[in-house]
Structure formats: C-alpha cells, structure tokens
Amino acid sequence: MHAPSIAAILALSLVPSLLAQTTPAPCFEPALGVNLGLGDDQVAQGNALGFSFPGPGNTVVTAIDISSNGFIWLGSNANSDCCNGYVPGFLTDMPRIAPFWTDLYPPASTSGVWFNTFPATATTLARAVVTWDQIPEIGMTTPFTVQLQLLADGSFTFQYDTSVSNVNHDVLIGCTEGIAAVGSPVDFSTITSQNPYLSGTDPTIYELQSLTFDMAGGSYEFLPNGAGGYIVIDRPSCVQIPARVQTFGRGCPKPAVVYEQFDFQNQIDLSNTAINFVGSPTGGYVAIPGTGFFTPTSAPIATGDDVVTGPFTLPFTFAYPGGSTNQIDISSNGFLWLQTGNFDPRCCSGYSAGFVADAASIAALWQDLNPSQGGSVHFDVDPSNTEVHITWMNVPEYFNTGTNTVQITLRSDSSFQLSYGTVANVSHDCLVGFSQGGGAADPGSIDFSASLPFTLGSGGIPLALNAQVGSMPIYGTNFVMETTDFPANSVFGVMALGFGQFVPGVDLGNFGMPGCEQNITLDATLFFALTSNPAPFSFAVPNNTAFGGVKINAQAVTLSPGANAAGALTSNGLQMTIGS
C-alpha cells in the first residue's frame, strides 16, 4: 500500500459513507444477457451500456469493446491483446478495465462471453455486466467464470469463482486510464474492507501474477474516491460457489475425427515416426505404426507463406468418412483440404475448433509454416497410380530457425499415412490428425505416440447431453438437461447419475456398442420419455447451501434399435456443480 497521504487518510475516513451511499451490485449477476459468440482472440465492439460510465481518469464512455481475453476497452479498440497480461501495454494503451487479462479460449467453453445491461430503478443504479463464463485458459481443460459489473456512479466490481486459475501465462488484474499512466502494483490478496487499498489521485491500479492466481473465489469493489482515484475493498459476503455445468467425454456413434494438439509449451514428439490409417471393419480407420518415407521427385509447387494451392488431381477416388474426392488443395501450413475450392490457409496455429467445424481435412503438421523462408512443398504421384505423396520438405516455422519435414500419403484403397522427418513447434500451437469436418463432434486430443493402435469412428451425429439454455443447478431449482440427436425410432431414454467419472471413458465395444463409452459411475438410473428431440430431463436441486460444490455426473442412454448390435447409444457426460 502507498504511504498514507493526507488525501488518502481523508479518503479512508469516507469509506463508511461511500459504502452507505452506493447501491452495491449483486455478488454475481445470474442473468448473463447475450452471448457475444466470441472465438479465440476476438473483440466484440460497440456494446452500448445504456448510461454514461465515468471510468479511470474520468474517461466517460457510453459503449465498451469486450475482449475474449478477459478485459474491456473503454472506447473503440479491436485489439484482443493476446496472449499475456503485459504491464507496459496496460500503462501505455488506451483506458481499460481488466478483471482477468490473459489468454482465454472461448472455443473450448460450453458457454462463452456474455453482456447484459440493467436500467436504473428507484433503488438501484444502472449497471452493465460482462461475464467470461466457463472459459478455460488456452491449453488447459478447467473452465472458470469471471464477472465484471460497471455501475453508473463509476464504481465497478470483479467476481471470481473458486475454479479460476492461471497455469501457463501472465495474468494482469486492474484498471488504468492508459496512454501515459504510471500507477503502482498492488497485492489484491491483502485487500479487505478493514484494510482497503487507497490510490489517492491515481486511477491506475494493477497486479501481475505469473503462472499462478491467488484470488480464486474472491470479489473486489472499486469505489471512486472523489480525488480521481479509487478505494478498493473486498466483498467477503460475495465469496460463493457458483452453480456450473461442464460436459466431458463423448457420445456415440464415434465421430470421424482424431487429433493430437501440441501447444507451444508442449513440443511435438513425432519426429522420425509414421502413423498408418487403414480401414476399420466398423467404418472409419484403425491407426497403427507405419513405415517408409517417399523422397519427392517432382518440382516444388508454387506456394508461399499462408497460401493454399490447388486443385491437384488424384489418379483415383479417395473415400473417407463423410465423403470422397479425386482432387485436393494443399496449404503451406502443413495440411490438405479434402474438398477443393477452400483457400483458407488457416494461419497461424492448429486449433481443434476449426478442425472439426471446417471442411474435411488431413493435418500432418498444422502450424505456421513458411515455405517462402525456405524449403519446398511437393505433390508426387507414384508410378503405379495407387499412391499420392504430399511433402513439406525442410520448411521452417515462421520466425524460427530449424526446418520441418513431413508427408501425407493418400492411397487408392482409401487408407493414408502421416510420415515425419524432423519436426518441431517452437512458438506456435500445432495439430496433427484427420477430421470429417462439417461441425463434427470434438472427441478431444489424444496422445498418438502412446495410444497406438487406436480406432477412428465412421462418423455420424453422436448422442448429446447438455444443459437446457438458461438452466443451472442452483439451490432449490429444477435443473433441466436435454438429450439431443437420437434416432427417430428410439423407444425410451435412461439417465444414469453418478459421483465418479471415467476419463477416458470405458469402451463398450464388447457389449455390442462399438464407438460408445461409459463416462460415469452408475450410482442411480432413471427412465425418461423421448417424446421430443431434444428430450428434457429435470433434476431437483436441494435447497440447502450445505450441498454447495457437490458434483454430480450424468450420462444419457437411448434404446435405439438398429443403431448397433445392442440397439443402444450413449451420450457424453455432463457434470453439474450445485451452487448459487
């Protein structure tokens, strides 16, 4: 804390009256409003507050820009500011408020970034609420929720659920008038209502935490002190366990998608190996260790940085789950499109959300490769006309030394192989695998080198279990889950409930359900009707705070004749955490 000046002492004396005069925001606003649909490193611009908000440095705004990375701009700015909280940028860029500025990843969220506004009433101030809801740090799997509330008097609050964490990044928390701010670092964990932080005339307050976060479950209020700065206090009555839901595992039939994701802290481990994908008796592929590497004899194709070249004609029809083709397009960034006419090179890192949503593709080393910096890309047809080889030969990663050599071989029997020389990902996320695309279900990353042999499903829409929109397992309410995408001839459903999870799931192939898995322990089962698709299932949540934080897992099963030998399908798992 700063050494107390006369102004600070006067401000401290005003704390009781400020608290009495200010209508506080609720601890957590459950009415989240509108899902902004933000992806990775995106900004939603021009969100109207419905009132004038006097921010740090008396920056008065009527609209804000919201970054997916845990902060808002007080004004117009399309920069998402990936990928770490950064003090020099915080002080020199335009005004902003950052409850949790780090590299968040909304594509992995079951919810997203939300915005809502509330007009003034006779007893409450006008408010705007931004919620980063159930979003993980990129590269991690644990989702968490952070909420920012702005009030018309210039005060604002930060609220963190108990799962908030920071494993691989720097996170910055605070507010600033920006441009040429000075400010001073503060330790938020030491702030209480009895020991407030007094910033005097300085409206810039911040803390930078590296690879850790010590404010999980906490809540803080920033009160304008009348001198240009803030009085910051904690809100101990707001420490709570928020209700939440999270899906895990997958439903069946098993999607025709398989991949391994390597973030830049997790270097790819496939150098000097090969993986052969051959047809499976149940459809899809079986992945087994492969051998061989074809030395290119063709002239390099015309390519460059972030370029897609094609179409290239195959001497055979290549069938794959979900389609077939005799032409492909080749991206400089280490993958090929199995449907031509798509000239998106998908710069600059491999990511699963695009892999499953886009058109069908095979990725040998999808990251930011740069053939214009060195190396070459080749398309070779074997003299037998039964194989085609696409090779990225000694191609460097953008802005890095070193080279990468990787090859995709397509065969006339519709099998394919990924072959590797020396490969690395120094500063980009990398993805390897196959996807039928078109919005297929995301099965999650698997470890190729440790999992061989493994099977790749034949495709189809898997049975899904999700929370009904707007429903949460809140004390004393009925939490509604919905089972979707079951076959029209399905007879009835069974909702399995359990306290334990199986991650990865238990394979049910031996029970006549290939590609299906058991994701939870079976502690209770209840029947439900499939009179509509989606089919609802209501769970009565106890009206008792003693159950706060209790986690209950659910998985749906449908009796669906003809779906497989057993005539039954399983959904993904859904974990509900009881709370407020």
What descriptive keywords fit this protein?
mainly beta, S-adenosyl-L-methionine-dependent methyltransferases, 3 domains, 7-stranded mixed sheet, 5% helix
Task: Describe this protein's structure.
With 580 residues, the protein is mainly β. The protein has 3 domains: 234 residues, no CATH class; 122 residues, S-adenosyl-L-methionine-dependent methyltransferases, CATH 2.20.130.20; 200 residues, no CATH class. Helix content is 5%, strand content 41%. The chain contains 5 helices and 38 strands. The chain has an 8-stranded antiparallel β-sheet with strand order 1-6-7-8-9-14-15-12. It has a 7-stranded mixed β-sheet with strand order 2-3-4-5-10-13-11. A hairpin with a 3-residue loop joins strand 21 and strand 22. The longest helix has 8 residues. The N terminus is likely disordered.
